[in-house]
Amino acid sequence: MSRAIAWSKRIPGGSDGRRLVVAALVDRIGSGLWASVSVLYFTYVSALTVTEIGTLAATAGAVGIAGAPLAGRIADRLPLTRVLVVTQLARSLASLALLTTDDYVLLLAYSAVGSFGDRASSVLTKLYATRVAGPDRVRYQAVHRTVANAGWALGGLTAAAALAVGSHDAYQWLLVGDALSFVACALIVLRCGEPPSPSRRVAASTDVPHAIERANPWRDRTYLAYVTTETVLFLDDAVFKIGLPLWIAHTSTAPDGLAPLLMVLNNVMVVVLQVPLARFGATTPAARSLLLPLSAAFALGGATMAFSATAGPLAATLLLTASAVLFTLAEMLHAIVSWELSVALAPDTAQGAYLGVHGMAQSAQRSVGPLAVTAAIASGPFGWAAFGTAVALTCIAQHRLVRERLTASPCRRPLPRSGTPDRPRR
Asked: What is the pTM of this model?
């Protein structure tokens, strides 16, 4: 117990930072409950067809893309904690609403609201953590991500136990648990203090030039290009959710039971290694330098996936395990790089708006990721080699893209394309 208390005190952001970590754990437990059985719920309880479920998921995901930029812009103008509470309550209502109908149009609408809230709460949580953790934001992100992965695992294990029951009531109670987790998160956030907001101070000040107040990420070509490369680097998510299971089932000689074991390996590695790795990206230059080993991890991960198609069962199992390790390493390194650079490239005066636009990268990946990995699978071993190489080259491109913005001195920093000056860098 004393060790747990000592560990909690090392979480950046003080008591508010610790409360937000607890909220993340509760959130992910609830999300793990629902994500594990959502397809089964719509199949057995709502009696939807495969095509209807696919359309519902795609539509909800498309609507969710708008959640991040809209929430970020609102958070630059209103108290962040209040916006986050409202978002969590909206997610809860959307989950509960699914229980009230089997009408397809209504199910689609409620799912879209839930997806919108999910992406909005993600960027709001990141913005809050950035403000309370300050210069320790990379370590905070690592702790947050470790706890979130543990929550996913707990939720998934609970859902697996419910699946053993297999009744309609079990699926419905899991959905209720998901909804209640969002209410619990809202109650925890209500106890958090409101962090200082540079954007709201600027909006209220009469001494700050109006041009700074209007910093606009949509006119900042460098930031938009950076977000575009981020969409590609987030593809590791699709590799684990879709690429590895399908590759093992349809192409590799490895046993089908390897797929869930590799997912467990991924989860364990993140929980054990994310925090220790964070120290290698504790500063902005250090985070940018991690793009080079990140590039190597993606390239090697694609290569080992390709070689696994021509190997026997034992060799294929070893190669696929190596792929899982490499893609998990890439996932952890990218989490460090992405968290730091997305904040470092954003002006303080429009931090919410910028992080909201950055949040679109992960949302967009949920749409293009499945297409990218299925295309790699359809192309055979060459497809995976090309996939790894393409993402690796994107890492190198991002490394060069952000160099000028991050290394320019405060007095000579180039203006964004909108004509809005960047904030001075510490």
From this structure: 0.77
